[in-house]
Every structure is written in C-alpha cells, then in structure tokens.
Amino acid sequence: MTVAHLDTGPDEVPHASVLTRISQQVGGASGTAILAVLLDATVQVTDDPLAALHRAFWRAVGFTAIALVACRRLPGRRAAAHDEAAAEERTTEPVGEPPAHVDRRRLAMRRRLAAPAAAEVRRRRRRACRGW
C-alpha cells in the first residue's frame, strides 16, 4: 500500500489514501468472490463439503503466496530506505573524540543544529513504515 504514497506531496496524500482504500475494498471483495465460486464448484464436483473447504483453504494459501512474490517486486522500499540512510549519514556527526584544535562549544552547537535534521529523517522513515 505504500507504493501509492511513494512520490506524493502533502497536497496529494488524500488522493493516495482514497486510492489505497478503494483497492483494499475491491481486492477484498474480488478475492472473497473468487474463493466462494471455487468452493461452490468444488462442492458440486466432490459432494464432500469438508474436502471442498480443505481445498479452498489451500487455494487461499496459494493466492497469498503468489501475492507475496508479487509484493517483493514492488518498487520503493529498498531505494527509499537507502536514500534516507544516506541522508542520515550526512546529517549526523562522526562518533569519537574531536581533534584537539576544535572548540568543544562549537562542536556542541553543531550537534544541536544537526539533531533536528536527523529527527526529521527518523520521522520520515517511521511514516514510510506505517504506509503514509
């Protein structure tokens, strides 16, 4: 669902939210209808409702496996995570003792100024994980 929000600006987020909601509703209804038709056809052929339910369950598992394989091919998650990690590396200070000629007050000021940028990167990463 995050692919709908991949390159959206703040003014386009409501439209992307509607897109994800519609796709959830249509996909859920279509999947349920397909499984119900397959179950009914299996009951008519085998005359054994328990075997038909068993077969329908494994068909649903197979559809889920196919969907997971398709999801692995969606764009964005790895590239976006890599871009955010690179941005975070650029905004954070290196770990360790500063050289002797660097004024400690100046270094503390730079760290305080870099902290909001790093916090923004973390906030964006959390939004991407939640599907915003």
Q: Could you characterize what this model shows?
A:
- It contains 4 helices and no strands.
- With 132 residues, it is an all-alpha fold.
- The protein has 2 domains: 65 residues; 57 residues, no CATH class.
What is the secondary structure topology, with strand pairs?
Layout: H1 13-46, H2 49-72, H3 77-91, H4 104-130
Helix pairs in contact: 1-2, 3-4
Task: Sum this structure up briefly.
The chain contains 4 helices and no strands. It has 2 domains: 65 residues; 57 residues, no CATH class. With 132 residues, it is mostly helical.
**Residue windows where pLDDT falls under 50 for at least 5 positions:** none
Distance between the termini: 9 Å
Q: Spell out the helices and strands N to C.
A: HHHH
Tally of distinct domains: 2
Count of helical regions? 4
Largest sheet: none
Oligomeric form of this entry?
single chain
Number of strands: 0
- Portion of residues within helices: over 70%
What does the average pLDDT come to?
Answer: 76
Q: Based on Cα principal axes, name the global outline.
A: elongated
Global structural class: mainly alpha
- Rg calculated over all Cα atoms: 25 Å
Approximately how much beta-strand content do the residues carry? under 5%
